[in-house]
Design goal:
The strands form 5 sheets. Strands 1, 4, 5, 6, 8, 9, 10, 11 and 12 form a 9-stranded mixed sheet that branches. The longest helix is centred in the N-terminal third of the chain and has 11 residues. With 430 residues, the chain is α/β, with parallel strands linked by helices. The protein folds into 2 domains: 268 residues, Spore Coat Polysaccharide Biosynthesis Protein SpsA, Chain A, CATH 3.90.550; 123 residues, Hexapeptide repeat proteins (UDP N-Acetylglucosamine Acyltransferase, domain 1). It has 10 helices and 25 strands. It starts with 9 loop residues before the first strand and ends in a 6-residue tail after the last strand. Strand 9 and strand 10 form a beta hairpin.
Length: 430
C-alpha cells in the first residue's frame, strides 16, 4: 500500500440504494443491502468486508428505505475494539435545518452527510455500491489512484458491445485517463471509437470485451469531492462524473476479477446458485480475505439422512430424508422427509419454534416453520420464516406465470419467490 496516505483518513461510503424495486419482493420489508445472500450472509457484507480486508475501517452506509433490519444486522455484526479507530455506521436520511427531504440520488446522499464526514478530516473518499458481488483489493485501487495523480478514479470492467448498452461507458486514452462518458449507449449506436486502446488492454482479456463500463465504484480526493458536489446535481454516474471529466483528471482503474450487479431477482438467483458450483466465480472459502457477517452461535447443520448434490447448507439446518440439488439452504432451515428441492434458495428462519408452538400449530392446522413432508420445489426463492405445508408442489407442474404479484408469491423471469412470513397450506400447487 502506498505510504503517501494515512488509512485512518480515508472514508469508505457504501451506497444503500433506493427502494430496490427490481429486487421486490425481497426488498418489501428490508433494504437491498440487508437481503440475505449465500445462506448466512447479507449483501452488504461483501463491500464491508472488501473495506476491512483492505484496511479501510472507517465505513459509512447510506440508506433510507426499510433500514430497521439493516441497522440490526450492522449493530450485531461489526463491533470494532476501542483501539482500532474503526466503525461501520449507518446514516439514514434525516431532516435537518439545512435539508428536509429524502436522498434524491447517490451524489445528493453524500452531499447531505458532509457534516458527518468532515469531522474525520478525510483526505480521500471511497464510494462503493451496496448491491454488488466482487472481491477487490482496494489498496491496489488506491495505489493506482495516487500514482496517476488523478482527482477521481473510477473502477471499470470490460464488457462486450451487447452488455455495454446497460452501463455507463468510458473512453480512455493510452494512460487510462478518462476523456469521455456515455450513459447506456443505444444498441444500434456505433461506438467503435470507444474501444479500449491496445496500450491499455490486458492481453488476457477476451477479445469480445472491448468497452469499459463503470462499476459505480470511485475514489475521490476529499477536496475534489467537496468542490464538485457544491451544486444541486443528484447522481454520480449520470451528472457528477460527466461534469467532472470536463475540468478534472479522471482515471480508469480496470478491474479484471469477477463482478456481478445483483440488483434483480434473476441476477440474485443466478449469482447465489453459482456458489454451489465446484469452482464458483465468487469464493467464500478464502481465509486470507474472509467475508464477515453476524456471529450466530448456531449448531452445525444436521442431516438425518439426506441426498445432497452441489449444495450449501448453513448453520442450524435440520434436513431429514430429502433429496436436494443445486440449492442454497439458509440458517435454521427445517426440511422434512420425502422432500425434493432442485435449484432452490431458502433464506431460513430468524428463530426455532418451541415444542409448545409446534403443538399449537398442530391444533390450528398451521404448518411448522420450514418445508414440510413430501414437497417438490424447483427454481424458487423461499424468503425467511416461510411455512410450507406437506405435499406442496412449487414450480414443477409446468404452469407458466406472467411476471407479477400473486399474493403469497411473486414471479420474475420464471423464478418463484415465496414471500417472507407467509403460510403455504398443505397440498398447494403453484
Amino acid at each position: 500500500m502506498s505510504k503517501e496516505i494515512d488509512k485512518s483518513r480515508v472514508i469508505s461510503i457504501i451506497l444503500g440504494g433506493g427502494k430496490g424495486t427490481r429486487l421486490y419482493p425481497l426488498t418489501k420489508e428490508r433494504s437491498k443491502p440487508a437481503v440475505s445472500f449465500g445462506g448466512k450472509y447479507r449483501i452488504v457484507d461483501i463491500p464491508i468486508s472488501n473495506c476491512i480486508n483492505s484496511g479501510f475501517k472507517k465505513i459509512y452506509l447510506l440508506t433510507q428505505f426499510n433500514s430497521a433490519s439493516l441497522h440490526l444486522h450492522i449493530s450485531n455484526s461489526y463491533n470494532f475494539d476501542r483501539f482500532s479507530n474503526g466503525f461501520v455506521e449507518i446514516l439514514a436520511a434525516e431532516q435537518t435545518l439545512e435539508h428536509s427531504g429524502w436522498y434524491e440520488g447517490t451524489a445528493d446522499a453524500v452531499r447531505k452527510n458532509f457534516i458527518h464526514f468532515k469531522t474525520q478530516k478525510p483526505t480521500h473518499y471511497i464510494i462503493l455500491s451496496g448491491d454488488q458481488l466482487y472481491r477487490m483489493d482496494l489498496n491496489d485501487f488506491m495505489d493506482q489512484h495516487i500514482k496517476s495523480g488523478a482527482d477521481v478514479s473510477i473502477a471499470t470492467i470490460a464488457v462486450n458491445r451487447r452488455d455495454a448498452s446497460g452501463f455507463g461507458i468510458m473512453k480512455i486514452d493510452d494512460e487510462h485517463k478518462i476523456t469521455e462518458f456515455m450513459e447506456k449507449p443505444a444498441p444500434d449506436l456505433n461506438i467503435d471509437d470507444w474501444k479500449i486502446p491496445e496500450a491499455s488492454r490486458d492481453p488476457m482479456l477476451p477479445k469480445e470485451k472491448e468497452y469499459l463500463a463503470s462499476m459505480g465504484i470511485y475514489i475521490f480526493n476529499a477536496d475534489t469531492m467537496e468542490e464538485i458536489l457544491n451544486n444541486d446535481k443528484q447522481d454520480f454516474g449520470k451528472e457528477i462524473i460527466p461534469m467532472a471529466i470536463k475540468t478534472k483528471k479522471i482515471n480508469s482503474y480496470i478491474f479484471d476479477g469477477y463482478w456481478e450487479d445483483i440488483g434483480t431477482i434473476r441476477s440474485f438467483y443466478d449469482a447465489t446458485l453459482d456458489l454451489t458450483n465446484v469452482k464458483p466465480q465468487f469464493n467464500f472459502y478464502d481465509e486470507r480475505e474472509p467475508i464477515f457477517t453476524q456471529m450466530t452461535n448456531l449448531p452445525p447443520c444436521k442431516m438425518n439422512h439426506a441426498d445432497l448434490t452441489a449444495c450449501i447448507a448453513s448453520e442450524g439446518c435440520v434436513i431429514t430424508d430429502s433429496m436436494i440439488s443445486h440449492s442454497v439452504i439458509g440458517i435454521r432451515s427445517i426440511i422434512e422427509s420425502g422432500t425434493v428441492l432442485d435449484g432452490v434458495i431458502t433464506m431460513g428462519a430468524d428463530f426455532y419454534e418451541s415444542d409448545e408452538e409446534k403443538a399449537k400449530n398442530k391444533e390450528t392446522g398451521t404448518p411448522n416453520m420450514g418445508i414440510g413432508k413430501h414437497c417438490h420445489i424447483a427454481k424458487t426463492i423461499i424468503d425467511k420464516n416461510a411455512r410450507i405445508g406437506d405435499n406442496c408442489s412449487i414450480n414443477v407442474s409446468g404452469k407458466k406465470y406472467e411476471n407479477g404479484d400473486y399474493g403469497n408469491f411473486y414471479v420474475a423471469d420464471g423464478i418463484i419467490v415465496i414471500r417472507k412470513n407467509v403460510v403455504i397450506p398443505s397440498g398447494t400447487i403453484i
